[in-house]
Each structure stands twice: as C-alpha cells, then as structure tokens.
C-alpha cells in the first residue's frame, strides 16, 4: 500500500508531500516516522494512493494509532496556501516537539502491539449494545452562569449573528468573561469541547483562574513554562481524551477489546467531517476546555464546538517566525470547516476585523459596564510643551505628583505607564556627536543604569558604558531620553517610603508574574511602573490613578499601524481604573500633542469615532481593509548582495499587473546579526494577485497581511 506523507521538516524549496509504502493500513492524520535522506523524521499521513511507478521507501513505524482530527489536517494545506508557506513548515505546527523521542509515547495506545496487526486495524466487537453511555461530563457539575440584561442581549446577538466568526466589542469592565463562561457551559452540556485563546497565560492569570474555579478538572492549561515532556503528555491526553477518557482515564488497565473498540471509533470519526463516534464504542467524547496562547488552537480535539479569542487585538496572535500566520484567521477557517462559532472579544478591535464584522453583520457591541458602581475616570491632559506643569520633576507633572501623594495617604495605588524600557535610549558624546550604536545592528543602545550597561534591544548585545568618547576621547558622555528604569529611580527619590515595583520586558522573566499580580491585587505595592505588558485586562481593585508619562510616544513610528497601536494601548491602560472597586478614578495623560485625534478618542474610550477617523484615513491611503498588503524582506550578510537581490525582485514584481509596489527601502531594523535587510511593500485589491506574484520569492521572508511593516 502507498501513502502520501508530509514530513515535518523542510527537505527542499517548496517541498510538499512524499510517497511511502507500508504493509499497514493507515488513515489520514496518523503520525509516522519516515526516512528523509539520511535522517528519520516525523510525518503526517494525508491519504492512501494507488500503486506508483517509481521506487518508494517504507514508512519506518506508526508513532500513534489515533489520527489527528480532520480539521487540523485541513489546516495544514490551508495555512500553506493562504500564507505562502511550505507544507512541512505548517505540518510541524500540528505535532509537539520531541513526539518521536524515546519513551515519549510510553503509556499511550501506540505502545500496545495488539491494537494493529501487520495488515489492518483490529476490529473487535463493540463492548456493549446498550443505550447507556458513560458520560464524564455528568461527573463534573456544569455551573449556572448568571448574566445581566446587557450581557444577555449581547449573547443573543452573538448566537444570531451571521457567519461563524463573530466580533464581540465590549468596553473594559463590561463582563465579556461572563459571556465566555456562559457559552462554554452550553458547549460542554452539548458534549463539545472549547478552546479559549489568551495572549499570554502569565498576564491573563485572572481569566484562567475564573475558568478553573468554574469548570474544575475539565480545564487544561497550556503555557510556555511547561517542559517538553509536560507538553507532550498534555497533547497526548487531549488526543486520546477526544474519545475514551472514560476508560483510559481510570487507573484500571483497559482490556484489549476496549482499546481496539476505542481506537476503531476514533478512526471512524476522523474518516470525514462526521464528529460523533457513539455508534462504534458507545462512549461519549469527553468535552474539554483548553486554555492557552496561539498554539492552543492546534490542540487535537476531535469534538470541538467553540473557539473563544480573548483580547483579540493583541499582536501575540500573529506568529513572527516561519510559518507566519494569524491565529485569528486560522480560527476562522477552523470554525467554518466545523460549522461552529468563533468569538473574538476585545475592547479595541483591529480595524480590519472591525470593518469586516460590520460589513458582514457579525459585530456585537457591549457598551455597558457590568458593575453598577463602575465610574468613568476623571481625565486630565497635561501638555508636555508647557514647562510650568513640571516645577519639581521633568518627567512627572505637578498634577501627577499630587495624585500619587494623595493615593499614598489613602493607601491606594498608582500605575505609571511608559512604553519604553531601560533608563535612557540615547548615549552620545556632547563634544563630537559620537553615538553608542550596536556593532551588530547599528541601532542606538539603551542605557540600563542599574547594571550601568548599554544593551541592544534587538539582538541582546551588551557592553559597559565608556568613561570617555571612543572617537575623540572627551569625557562628556551624556544620556538622553528616558525609560521605565529611569522613572523607577526618580520615583524612589521622590517617594522613598513607597513600595515601588517595575514591570517590563527586562524583569518579567525574573519574576513570577502570577505572584506579582497577586501582590498588586492585594495592595502590597504602592506604585507600579510598566510598559504595554500592563495594559492588558488586569483587574486591580486598589488602583486609583493611571499616569501616562508620554502618550504620543508611539505615534511617530514609520508604520501604517502606529496610530491603531497607540489607541489600543492608551484605551486599555486607561481602562484599568473606574471598574467599581473605588469611588475615585483618575487618569493623568502627559503628551506633546493634546489635540491629536488618537489622544482625544482614547481618553474618552470612543472607539466608534476613532474607527471612523482611521477608516477614512486608510481609504484615502489605500491601506487595509481597503486593499491587501504584503511585505517582502530580503536579508544577506553583505549590503551589496542584499541590494542586488532586492532590486532584481523589484524589477520582476514591477511587471506584474494589478499590484502597487514601493521602491526598495531599508527595513526599520536594517542591520542585525543576520545581516542587512531591505524590503518591498506590495498592495493590491486582490489577495490572490499578491500570492501569485510572490510565489517565486518563497525562499525569502514573505508576510501576507502583516500587522506591521517595522
């Protein structure tokens, strides 16, 4: 017998499926070991084919008898085509690392030689013909989730919205979580599983904890701190629990007939889109709730009934490395294949998603805060150009310092937000103008005063601060600009008795983020300083004031998404106060551009006005959602080679009809430790036209629908 198998390692440019032979009857989705050149790699069976007229190699062995669910097999092909990736690259997403390692499958069905024989899968008699079917869901009581009137209305609208993907735009504090819980509970009652995507487990621990408290042992959490062994075990448990956890989850060793019956029903269920296996083994699939980041979407759940994407605007849902893809788009594809709902929830939707949802009548808005005692914060705008606002400190206005002092007296908290880490982003010689640049990236290095080191935030290069200028040897080395570390130092001088904690990309790896959140929530910390990692949906009951040190810092970036990102960050961080815990809520916004539309709409949480402003601007500039965008980046060790390649690509693509193409230009981070990078930006009203045009350039970095061009 001959089978097409997709290896999970790229073996040639544009590599796809290969043909192998086996004496065993294999089904689509089964995971095997196959020879690839001089190596042996994992692969996924796609289909059985007729006899071929060329020599083939034998499949080394079957790794696990349970095949991947049908929708994951479909996703491999869809991802490769939609994002111009290779089949091996997309197939590798479906299997956890080290699944073929010695002992990785110990205890799984794959270890039981009785499950398969040389020619076929065993077909034992079903264990029972009775109508009584074990049901583990009944062992865990599904709780009753109470909703307020606004939430009930939103839920009804979500259920009635057109299409499978629906956008829930709910203001901060409106209770989107309650709607998630209600939909998940209904899905479990229907014997279907749920996937809940979150941007990062550590920073959404509150949401995870609520689901665990509500649904108990039906919740499986996937996170980056798990070891490879733990990830493999979790993945295998989900694969096998789709059918038969009633038997396999017990301490009693299942019998040979039980194993065979469960396997047979699993194979039957994966033979096409049918999602029930009760007629084979009389065992109901055990519903699960899987919570995790982007990769959790690829959990091998054969009875999936609902996908929820929390904080759907987050950039973490886009995979930067090959294969590059958006988890939101993949979730929509899976939902369409399975005809199940996919709910994307956020207070600040991506403008493309918002436009599409409005156009296709799948937008549901929840504008009322859940708590009746929730209040709108009092917002004060401070003009950074007016130095009279800063009599005591050049970073903190008098208005902000007064609020911090008042909060300390009342045992309430202050959050200081600035989206730049480090102490100072520029180190220069005052005499000759020399600047401390990374020797690898040629970008300014940031001073970290606590260790008195210069650090490149792109490649990680570190070096000591020179005592004199390396160019003219003058001792006047100065540092300009400021980051969160400098703000921390200043605040400790201003408020020496306050407990101050900084939370940003420099220290989050050294702290238990869940523990830090509990410290903040309990009121142990007086002043919290941080970057965008603090802007996500945290509920901080003691927080009275948010101080935004420079609200317009992200607006000047040379990126089409700069205004959208700034609005999202400002709206999210302002939404941390006024949630009904305290009778006071204040926001101090320091900015050089107090009248900018982004600043004005963000402080009012007026997404509709912002969306109208941005859509008009995007339409005039012919940017998404009114056109499709692609980025082609070419990197080589020498600048000469990079320029030659990018000019050739530009010449070829310029002859393609129906496409606008930019001149060759250096990337925002032109030089890194990988070499020199130049790029082309392509626009077209047809996504297919972009795909066809870029097909010959697949060996380079291609981003279709990039969230940013930096």
Question: Short description, anyone?
Answer:
The chain is built from 19 helices and 31 strands. With 710 residues, the protein is an alpha/beta fold. A hairpin with a 5-residue loop joins strand 12 and strand 13.
What's the count of strands?
A: 31
Cα-based radius of gyration, to the nearest Å: 28 Å
Largest sheet: 7 strands, parallel
Helical percentage:
25-40%
Mean pLDDT rating: 84
Going across the major beta sheet, what is the strand order? 9-10-8-11-14-7-15
Tell me the distance between the termini.
50 Å
Low-confidence stretches: 106-139, 244-256, 266-283
Structural class: alpha/beta
Principal-axes geometry comes out as globular
Number of helical segments with 4 or more residues: 19
Proportion of residues in β-strands: 15-25%
Kindly describe this structure.
It is a single chain. The chain is an alpha/beta fold. The chain contains 19 helices and 31 strands. The strands form seven sheets. Strands 9-10-8-11-14-7-15 form a seven-stranded parallel β-sheet. The chain has a six-stranded mixed β-sheet with strand order 5-2-1-4-3-6. Strands 16-26-25-17-24-23 form a six-stranded parallel β-sheet, sandwiched between helices. α1 packs across α10, α3 crosses α4 and α15 runs parallel beside α16. The radius of gyration is 28 Å and the shape is globular. The relative contact order is 0.09. About 9% of the residues have low confidence.
Explain the layout of strands and helices.
Layout: E1 2-7, E2 18-21, E3 31-36, E4 39-49, E5 57-58, E6 61-64, H1 70-82, H2 87-92, H3 149-160, E7 165-170, H4 176-189, E8 193-197, H5 205-215, E9 219-221, H6 228-241, H7 245-248, H8 256-269, H9 278-281, E10 289-292, E11 304-310, E12 318-319, E13 325-326, H10 327-338, E14 342-346, H11 351-359, E15 363-366, E16 378-383, H12 398-409, E17 413-417, E18 426-429, E19 446-448, E20 453-455, E21 462-464, E22 477-480, H13 484-494, E23 500-503, H14 513-521, E24 527-530, E25 543-548, H15 562-574, E26 586-591, H16 597-603, H17 607-621, E27 628-636, H18 639-654, E28 660-661, E29 665-672, E30 675-684, H19 687-694, E31 701-704
Helix pairs in contact: 1-10, 3-4, 15-16, 16-17
